[in-house]
Design goal:
Elements lengths: L13 H10 L4 H20 L3 H8 L6
Amino acid sequence: MQSKVGAGERSEDRFTGAIERVTSKAPSSVYLGCALGAMIGSAVLKIVGKNGWACSLDSGPRLF
């Protein structure tokens, strides 16, 4: 899977390029760990009866 933009193809704008430069420095396991942590935290909140907080935290992994 190739993710770089080659010559003659569409290019990224400055904002997208800046985000890519920053986020590409972190290994994928960081994002996976954040998503798993949010799901586990959501399950714990659900068990202790904090349903509103659980639902809020559960929507986090979709952002990762």
